[in-house]
Amino acid sequence: MFGHRAPRRTPAWPSHPCAIRPLKNDGALSKRDGRVRDKDAGSVNSSAIRATEDDVSCRLVRFGGRGFVLKWPPRRRTFSPPVALTAITSVAALLLVSLSLVLIGCGSSPAGETTTSTAGVTTPAAADTTTTVATDTTTTVATFPVTVVDDNKANVTIKVEPTRIVSTAPSNTELLFALGLGDRVVGVTSLDDYPPEAAKIAKVGDFQINTEAVMALSPDLVIGYAGAEEALKPVQAKGTPVIILNPATVEGIYANIATVGMATGATAKAAELVDSIKAQIKQISDAAAATGQSPKVFYAVDNTLWTCGPGSFVDDLLQLAHATNVAAMRGADSAGVQAYYQFAPEQLVASDPDIILVPNTAYKSADEFTGDARFKSLRAVKEGHVYLINDVVVTRPGPRIGDGLKTLVDIIHPGAL
Asked: Which long-range contacts (CB under 8 A, 24 or more apart) does 248-251 make?
């Protein structure tokens, strides 16, 4: 149940003052259309030429320069040669003045005026203000330090945006990658099998965390899991923030995503991820509900009848799949009913579930279960409703939890999706 990012380097941007540069978003970005509505900066007028800001500007629109246009007066005049020569000279002088203004416009704005970027952020211009263009207008710049509360109810303060993160559980690694932070992850466990990129990252243990291996990586944030606290105490003592995650429900998984998003400066991405998972789960759950059926299901987490009771996120998923979890039924031995506990063979026989789900992490095939003489009288065994299931995607409390629900519904309500 149970993803290093090198410090960001500033690209070698073109030296021209009108070149595109990365924007430091100050939060004033217009979300309506992501573009700026520039204030009129005035115009250069004469009887022979007019160049307004709409025509003469170094403003970039969709990364393309607008250039400038010379607008001639509509009236036509007849000049004698001397007069014509004077007019031509005047026009040339005005043209040079206009071009000078254009070049000035490409540089810093005079003090007291406003410099506007095409990202939709308007800020007072100082003498050394540089106009910039955002490369991603949807990203909110994080502010550090930030303090979060982990699942151990501990207040954890992250002073600067972390760039070297260690994950001590596969679910945490999946979450970091889902938030787009895989390039910041410098350490994972040997159990981390998803995404495939995790295989190339340095290992810091398995079920047991190697404290020295964690510290050798010089992390600036550790995302831990319940049970690893003791091994991570020396890491905390060294001043490295450690966040412990231990979600008990689907809502707890959502909260963990938000917590990690805040701790890493990926708050907006975290909210987007939660919304996506919720939408996926709703669509799948609604399809299951439309069947009008709620068969009794026994979910085994190993080959010794350990199961998931009320208070576990697997029980949450079974409810969302519109199934009746026999391990949460009143008829089960109420003294033993808890989030995770071991069913007795007699309890399983007495509850006689319609469907039995056994994990592919403990069984090679469903036949290993159905061949057990103790269970030959079960309805699920007789009717061929014992199924081998991808246990990892169902029991791993991370961003693929919606896929876990789909796995359940595909078996419990075949054809519903």
From this structure: 248/311, 248/312, 248/313, 248/339, 249/311, 249/312, 249/313, 249/316, 250/281, 250/313, 250/316, 250/317, 250/320, 250/401, 251/316
Measured between alpha carbons, how far is 303 from 357 in angstroms, rounded to an integer?
Answer: 11
- Smallest CA-to-CA distance from 60 within 43, 36, 27, 40 is with 36
Q: Measured between alpha carbons, how far is 108 from 124 in angstroms, rounded to an integer?
A: 12
Q: How confident is the model at residue 284 (pLDDT cuts 50, 70, 90)?
A: very high
Hey, is 332 helix, strand or coil? coil
C-beta separation of 373 from 346 below 8 A: no
225 and 172 Cβ atoms separated by less than 8 Å: yes
pLDDT for the residue 119: 29
Question: Residue 230: helix, strand or coil by DSSP?
Answer: helix
- Domains in the chain, start-ordered, CATH in brackets? 11-137 (no CATH), 146-265 (3.40.50.1980), 287-412 (3.40.50.1980)
What is the CB neighbour count within 10 angstroms for residue 229? 15
Q: Tell me the C-alpha distance between 205 and 166, whole Å.
A: 11
pLDDT level of residue 35 (50, 70, 90 thresholds): very low
Given a contact cutoff of 8 angstroms between Cβ atoms, the answer to whether 166 and 204 are in contact is: yes
Query: In the chain, count of helices (H) and strands (E)?
Result: 12, 18
3-state helix, strand, coil in the chain (%, to 5): 35, 15, 50
User: For the whole model, what pTM was predicted?
Assistant: 0.66
| pLDDT tens per residue, range 319-357 | 999 999 999 986 555 556 788 999 999 999 999 999 999
